[in-house]
Amino acid sequence: MRRPRHRLQRSAETRRGTERAARDGITINIDLAEELETLEALRSSGRITTARLGLRVNPGLPVFTARDRSFVQAHAAKQRSAKFGWPLDDGLAGHMAERISASGFSFETVHAHLNSQITDATLFLAALDPVLGFVASLRASGTQIRELNVGGGFGVPGMQRSKHGWWSALKATMGERLEDTPTRPSTWPPSPGLARRLREHGLDDLCIGCEPGRYLMSAGMVLVARVAGLKVLPEKQWVVIDAGLTSSHGGLRRAPSAALLSRRRELPVRDDDPDCTIGGPLCFEGDIVMDHARVPASLAAGDLVVLSDAGAYTVSRSTNFNQLRAAVAMRDGRDRTLVWRRETYDDVFCFSD
User: Fold this and answer.
1) What distance in Å separates the CA atoms of residue 127 and residue 62, rounded to the nearest whole number?
2) pTM for the complete prediction?
């Protein structure tokens, strides 16, 4: 990053937020036509005089592979119709770029967020190719694009995305489980491959930005939950814990590992231990932390479940739906600090006078 700047990109921005960003010189990546119209109205009313704009685009190409081809087909279709970004293959991105250029605002940035937990650098770079071609065409037409933000979503080792489609569901009804193939993330960012593609498109001078939030922070925290109880059903065994969607981003259900502790000692897991589903406390069928986990037969209520890779999104997306927010503590060697105290009912019912 040669030119660090703040950027604003949400699929639905408020008028107040847009005005504040423009006044503070924050680059606003346009993802809705209404955002540009709001900026033009703010300028006409004298609320702002200028704004730094970018364009969020969507190449619509797959970035995942899997043993289940039905998942790959569904994933490719979702990529083409994603909410984020203007499609490159039907002229909408080009049309929006023309509108931004004609607005008179500064237009120097293109942004593309390809997905989350991407582990294959080859597919990542292949999806960026049409984006680079688009930037090159904008430059050729006279638009001085200076920066490309390739987004985030860089895969981390401690998480696995579930890659099942209708074929996996069909196999399951026949008593056959189609296992995910564990993937190890590529080295991020894939700088040599990206540099080569930049040269091929004549974009050597382009400033490249990225958003490696999860990649940097994921392993920095764990989520500690307590076992509320176990429920053994004829077709499934549940381990119910006191943390779930209320305490973390739903992506935790993709975590491949959980340490199970009893009286502060880790319980060993054997291959013949029961396969369980670890679920959270909500009366909601989607509150699942791990679909499949080997759990020691000795696990009991009161034991602890320690889930890895909770460093990204966990705190910011926690809620008090069904229970109070948990505390956050930091440990560095022997130093221990309470970062965020446990929420109380007084916090919840603190109404304005």
Assistant:
1) 7
2) 0.85
